[in-house]
Amino acid sequence: MATKEATKEFAVIKTGGKQYLVSEGDTLKIEKLAGEHKIGDSVVFDEVLLVDDGSDTTIGTPFIKGAKVTAEISKISRAKKVVVIKYKAKSNYFKKRGHRQPFFEVKITKLA
After folding, report:
1. CA neighbours within 13 Å on the CB side: how many for 41?
2. Which residue ranges make up each domain of the chain?
3. Considering the entire predicted model, what is its pTM?
């Protein structure tokens, strides 16, 4: 017996050097995109590696021509601070740096 989850359409996209498994309505955090963006903007991911509509699977070599995933930016922020400490004993060497990685939170609106 097939469940709703098994027949749900999904895609694998590539952005920011990472790959994400997405379907309509999903929310995910991605690396910050180049250019000027604000909350509510629409973003199109055209590097689609795989599409599955429940009955047919299409695999790209490496990308599927004409396939697009549309998303809407719901949040622009920076992650929690990561503290990096470099220390060498007995040599008066100590460096402390902090880093906050910027990210976009996007909601997938359409698979095409």
Report:
1. 12
2. 10-111
3. 0.80
